Amino acid sequence: MIRDITLGQYYPGSSPVHRLDARTKIIATLLYIIELFIVNNFWGFLIAGAALFTVIAISRVPVKFIFRGLTAVFLIIAFTFVINLFMVDGRILWQWKIFKITYEGLMRALFMAVRLVLLIIGSSMMTLTTKPIELTDGLEKLLKPFSLIGLPSHEIALMMTIALRFIPTLMEETDKIIKAQQARGADFESGNIFQRAKSLIPILIPLFISSFRIAQDLALAMEARCYHGGAGRTRMNEIHFARGDAAAAILMIVFLAVIIASRFLPTIF
Amino acid sequence: MAFISVKDLIVEFTRIDEDGREVPGKKALNGVTLDIDRGSFVAIIGMNGSGKSTFAKCLNGLVIPTAGDVTVDGFNTRDEGHLWDIRRRVGMVFQNPDNQIVSSIVEDDVAFGPENLGIKPAEIRRRVDDALRKVGMYEHRTKGAHMLSGGQKQRIAIAGAVAMRPECIVFDEPTAMLDPQGRQSVMDIIKELNAEGITVILITHYMNEAAQADRIVVLKKGLVFADGTPHDIFADREMIEKAGLELPYEIELREKAGLPDTVMTVEDIICQLK
Amino acid sequence: MSIEVKDLRYVYNPGMPGETVALDGVSFEVRDGEILGVIGHTGSGKSTLLQHLNGLLKPASGDVYVDGQCITDGKAKLVEIRRKVGLVFQYPEYQLFEETVAKDVAFGPKNLGLSEEEIADRVKNAIELVGLDFEAIKDSSPFELSGGQKRRVAIAGVIAMHPSVLILDEPTAGLDPSAHADVLSMIRRIHESMGIIIIFVSHNMADIADMSDWVIVMDHGRIVLRGKPREVFSHGEMLSGMGLAVTPARAIMNRISAEIPDLKSDALTIDEAAAELREYINRTKNI
Asked: Is CATH 3.40.630.10 correct for B4-243?
């Protein structure tokens, strides 16, 4: 069902990874994504993959749970793979009419697919091990220095909290509206692109109206609970840097060095 | 002095006319005057459009009167400087369980109110745990809100109000979207909170829920149409029909079986028959 | 006219960690012009069942026949299935989207590919059948109506497709007492004038007892009880074990009978209960 999408979902736990400060995890994730683009051969991915699996093992998030999240983005991965497979010139391995697969294309396709898989698993590790509220609190604190140049860090963080909270609600709402219109004989699958775009109107308008209703209800509920902006607000779980975060920081630097060094290893294939 | 005092309350919504000017629109409340005592359990009933939901929103300053005054514990809701003093005293639970939960995780949502009040972290933790125990949702504290049933979500919303330690909670049709089990659990919690001294104002269109209050106010077209004990209110069949409402089942049965009008509950019926 | 469900099975997330059997061998039949009430606790499989009846979900095994024609064998056209079986979801007013009431009601008939005159005709009839004034309301925006009116417009949108079977999921949810009574009498009116089969789900046992010819009770994806309302509501203990209730009148009478064993009751409505009480009072007075 629609609510099974793992992307952006928290897996409760108390592992050392869960206990890290959200800011550490946000920075580590950003760094990891950058490192995936520094990597230029499969050695790098081997190291990056090993590191990721170590983190997963420490976090005790079931591997099954993580891969379930991947199925939701499987199409994107497959699309990237196929595009790269057919689009690169080089030594031809297989050809049929205008379609050809080259050695270089195959390597590039594998390379991109692995990068994408690691990227998705890596970033979902952050959301899986960090409560949404800690994530947004962390983001708020990281963005705080930018409020000097007028960046509304509290508001951005609150918007993220609410967005994360209402993704499942809006997905269910969409599902319901699609089914209700299908029951009235609506057809979303046939016709050319313009007809299809037009057939979305019966879904989009009720969805907009629902979103406005939710927004209005939520705004009232927040006001009733004394919300008046970020000033003077406290937090139940204040986030603190601890010894674990220091250790994580050191590991991150070492890992960055290893990844950069991996660029100079000879290619495997 | 009464805890909440409402005097000549008029609320008129404005609308934008064809030329883009603000003009007076529908009158939701048309001169309501009533006092609510500390610790009481008041049910407010009336058809859709009778103004009961607008009335509820006036009690904590979510809607400011067009004319007349609402005073909570001495603070007038017009006085913006004391709006937070009012809202921390008068909590509110709304109809749609989904649309009032701010955070994805149960305990983080319950903490939202106390966090806005600027309370110390350790004290927030204590209040959140207490509130969750009170509504029987402590074991679910680390769950995702979207995994809960409607009744459970509504209990979380109640915990969110309770964690602010209010003196009064206004419930705006809290059971309208729930199944019978969810409805029962919410009513049980409401009665328990009232027994512990919290003033309860319950807006509802279920007559059997209203019958459990100490006092019922019937609204019709923005006016107080009747005000009294459940016994008095439900003795007046004609008034109930005029207000577009119906009698609770026990009372309907009492009337049709020709039992005396002191009979209010099933226990009373049994006493009569024995 | 008839609808027949044979050994329907449905599994959510087959082969995945969250695998759940939502329907486990459900069979029943509704004949010409009957009203079937469906009750069950939230998550008992009611909604899943309803969605099978007009092809929104495909069963893992089992079949659904409407007027003798199988709609689950993959040969029936979807538009044809949806014409035969109208499904009104809970809070149907959330599906309204057109600028005017008339256009919104016309959405379904248009999807059936009917002629302009036929559509106009059906729209007018459907709006009148749900108890609204066609001339007064046809050009207003559906979003300016009251809650009860919106719901009736949404139901009109489905009955304008002239289904043989009309399914309603909690048609009275969230309405105040007078709007509630209006919607119930509207359902009766639709049933009488169109002569169609009606299947409706409700948590309101008084409505179920009042409206249905037959009742089925669902629990854990199975039909655990079926019969006339009086038979079904005589299983009070079994129902409460499934988190369900009997009718309010019956619940009151059960509590009275527990204290006064001499007073036996099989009342479903308040009127019947009152008659039993009066009869008991007369009987005991004469002793």
From this structure: no
Is the CB of A217 inside 8 Å of chain C's CB atoms? no
Q: Which residue of A has its CA nearest to B164?
A: A225
Q: Name the DSSP class of B144.
A: B
**Chain A residues with CB-CB distance to C12 below 8 A:** 1
Find the closest chain B residue to A225 by CA distance. B113
Q: How many CB atoms are located within 10 Å of the residue C133 CB?
A: 9
- The Cα C52–Cα C238 span in angstroms is 27
To the nearest whole Å, the CA of A214 is away from the closest chain C CA by: 12
CB-CB neighbors (< 8 A) of B108 in chain A? 131-133, 236
d(CA A9, CA A164): 9
Instruction: Please answer yes or no on whether C259 and B274 come within 8 Å at the CB atom.
Output: yes
Angle (deg, nearest 10), helices A243-262 and A22-38: 0
Instruction: Determine whether the interchain pair B249/C249 forms a contact, defined as Cβ–Cβ distance below 8 Å.
Output: yes
Q: Three-state SS for A62?
A: coil
**pLDDT (tens place) for every residue of chain C, 287 residues total:** 889 999 999 998 776 656 788 999 999 999 988 999 999 998 899 999 999 998 899 999 999 999 888 988 888 888 888 889 999 999 999 999 999 999 999 999 999 999 999 999 999 999 999 999 999 999 999 998 988 899 999 999 999 999 999 999 999 998 888 889 999 999 999 999 999 999 999 999 999 999 999 999 999 999 999 999 999 999 999 999 998 989 999 999 999 999 998 888 889 999 999 999 999 998 887 76
Identify how many contiguous H helices and E strands chain A contains and give both numbers. 11, 2
Average pLDDT score over chain A: 86
Task: State the burial class of residue A192 (Cβ atoms within 10 Å of its Cβ: 0-12, 13-18, 19+).
Answer: exposed
Pairs from B205-209 (Cβ < 8 Å, separation ≥ 24): B205/B45, B205/B47, B205/B48, B205/B173, B205/B176, B205/B245, B205/C175, B205/C176, B205/C177, B206/B175, B207/B45, B207/B234, B207/B245, B207/B246, B207/B247, B207/B248, B207/C177, B208/B248, B208/B249, B208/B250, B208/C248, B209/B43, B209/B175, B209/B183
Q: What distance, in Å, lies between the first and last C-alpha atoms of chain A?
A: 41
Q: List the structure tokens of A32.
A: 């990891």
Q: Which residues pair with B203 in a beta bridge?
A: B44, B172
Residue B213 in contact with residue B230, Cβ under 8 Å? Answer: yes
Report CA-CA distances (Å) from C284 to C262, C277, C278: 10, 11, 10
The amino acid sitting at C118 is: E
- In the chain, the amino acid numbered C237 is E
- Region of A94 (left: φ > 0; alpha: ψ -120 to 50; beta: rest) is beta
Answer for the pair B219, B50: CB distance below 8 angstroms, yes or no: yes
Residues 131-150, chain C, touching A (beta carbon < 8 A): 143
The beta strand positions in C192-273, using DSSP E, are: 197-201, 214-219, 222-227
Domain layout of chain B by residue ranges: 4-243, 247-274
* CB B262 within 8 Å of CB B248: no
CB spacing of A209 vs C94 below 8 angstroms? yes
Q: Would you give the DSSP letter of residue B147?
A: G
Q: Half-sphere exposure of B253 toward its Cβ, with a 13 Å CA cutoff? A: 27
Q: Are A87 and A105 in contact (CB under 8 A)?
A: yes
Pairing of strands B90-93, C85-88: unpaired
Q: Are B106 and B140 in contact (CB under 8 A)?
A: yes
Burial C59-89 (b: 16+ CB within 10 A, else e): beebbbbbeeeebbeeebeebebbbbbbbbb
Q: C108 and A185: CB-CB below 8 Å?
A: yes
- Considering CB atoms only, which of B115, B128, B164 is closest to A234? B115
Q: Radius of gyration (Cα) for chain A, nearest Å?
A: 23
